[in-house]
Design goal:
CATH superfamily: MFS general substrate transporter like domains
Largest sheet: none
Number of helices: 23
CATH class: Mainly Alpha
CATH architecture: Up-down Bundle
Number of strands: 0
Helix content: over 70%
Structural class: mainly alpha
Distance between the termini: 12 Å
Number of domains: 1
């Protein structure tokens, strides 16, 4: 097979005998509908647990600043956001190690183990003594646990998406995979609602004193449920086919990083999700802190800020499966393009509404932004999974997406906090959304349509 043949993995032309390795997917034993549904549920539940664990940190960052850093003003918030960034720096290490193991030994057991790791690290954050008790050891422990969270998250995203994608039928792959994204947003919604209930029933003083720990400790039972569900499933049909044909990559990392075809796809994996940073981490994870600290507590208490975020989370959770169905009908590229353009167009006017300080207008602004972003959230991970063959999918996808998240996502809260302070403009997040939407839009031009295509084996 020629290099050009290998690059054209989405062609409609019949495969010749010399291209038999790329057609290995024809030997995959397709799972029945019941098994596919179980795999989808397992992926969604695992995503819920992972992003609850990861997102609760961003939702409660001001309480962490008070207890772990000793203050809630700029210095404490800065240090806490550094903890947010450090976890993202740890992600590539998790992506490299977990990607290698996932492509060598399979997806199932590794994903169950990662869920235990991230849940344990999250619960341990809730047990850290305050700064007043152990001093500088408190932020040191927080950083260590954030590294563990980042490591596990680095291997989780690509693994979970690959797992469900390798079970899903070609014609409905995006729809089935979209529930992993839905799980992540429902997790944030649950975290927002749970935190709001605690603030309402116990009061802000109790939250500051001890109740902030409760959402972190809830990771223990949630993690157990997710682990149990994932352990009940078998390995994916596509990986089983690789193993049966004795074509599992001996060194998937080397294969991914020495192939021009895979390096090109990894580059696309870095830049295509650019919008994911402002879309996910600013609009949902960082938004409560943004509303409370940038617009003032006289406009948005933490309870009101969490409520605004909850409305936008409901909107995107409803829209994602609809956008995924549309993608399975008309293609990945059109939906991604519409979402990027819509986000770029509405970002500035919607953030103008948000910065008025009016609760109702802020709800409208975040809901419109969520709807605009939903097409990207629904489709991007399916495209990333479809760009790589099964033999290196976990490794290559993990590496590219982790690098993307460091550049466009992990630095977002820290960067926004500092830019807002230095410029005096609360509209900085709007410009971040516009710039990253344009980066995503340019990258889409280099993609090949993957709708309805069989997953390539090698």
């Amino acid at each position: 097979m020629t290099t050009s043949d290998r690059l054209d993995t989405t062609s409609d032309r019949p495969k010749t005998a010399s291209e038999k390795p790329d057609a290995a997917a024809v030997d995959v034993v397709t799972a029945d509908g019941k098994v596919v549904r179980k795999a989808t549920i397992a992926g969604a539940v695992g995503s819920f647990v992972e992003w609850y664990d990861y997102g609760i940190y961003g939702l409660l960052v001001t309480y962490l600043a008070l207890n772990i850093m000793g203050e809630a003003e700029a210095g404490g918030l800065f240090l806490t956001n550094v903890g947010f960034l450090i976890s993202f720096i740890a992600r590539p290490f998790g992506s490299v190690i977990c990607g290698y193991l996932g492509d060598r030994i399979g997806r199932k057991s590794l994903l169950a183990t990662l869920l235990v790791l991230i849940s344990g690290a999250t619960a341990a954050i809730g047990l850290i003594p305050s700064h007043s008790v152990i001093g500088v050891a408190a932020p040191a422990l927080l950083v260590l646990l954030r590294v563990l969270q980042g490591f596990s998250a680095g291997g989780e995203v690509a693994g979970a998406m690959s797992f469900v994608g390798e079970y899903a039928p070609d014609a409905r792959r995006n729809y089935m995979m979209s529930f992993i994204a839905v799980g992540s947003f429902i997790a944030l919604m649950f975290g927002s609602a749970f935190s709001a209930i605690l603030i309402t029933t116990l009061g802000n003083d109790a939250m500051t004193s001890w109740a902030w720990r409760v959402p972190f400790l809830l990771a223990v039972p949630l993690g157990y449920v997710g682990f149990y569900i994932r352990r009940q499933l078998e390995e994916t049909p596509h990986f089983v086919a690789l193993r049966a044909q004795n074509t599992v990559a001996r060194n998937p990392l080397r294969e991914a990083l020495t192939s021009k075809r895979h390096l090109k796809a990894i580059a696309l994996t870095i830049f295509l999700p650019a919008l994911n940073g402002p879309g996910y981490y600013l609009l949902f994870v960082y938004m409560p802190t943004y509303l409370k600290t940038s617009l003032g507590e006289h406009n948005f208490s933490m309870l009101r800020a969490l409520t605004v975020t909850a409305f936008s989370l409901v909107a995107i959770a409803v829209c994602i499966p609809l956008m995924a169905r549309l993608s399975d009908r008309i293609g990945r590229k059109p939906v991604l393009t519409i979402s990027a353009v819509a986000t770029a167009v509405v970002a500035y006017p919607m953030f103008r509404l948000i910065t008025t300080g009016e609760f109702g207008l802020a709800c409208i602004g975040t809901i419109v932004l969520a709807i605009a972003f939903s097409g990207h959230a629904a489709v991007v991970h399916t495209v990333l999974a479809e760009m790589f063959p099964t033999s290196v999918r976990y490794s290559a996808y993990s590496i590219g997406f982790s690098i993307s998240t460091i550049i466009f996502g992990g630095s977002a809260p820290l960067l926004m906090t500092e830019l807002i302070k230095s410029t005096g403009s609360n509209l900085v997040p709007a410009f971040a959304a516009i710039i990253t939407a344009l980066i995503t839009l340019v990258t889409i031009a280099f993609l090949r349509e993957t709708k309805g295509r069989p997953l390539v084996a090698r």
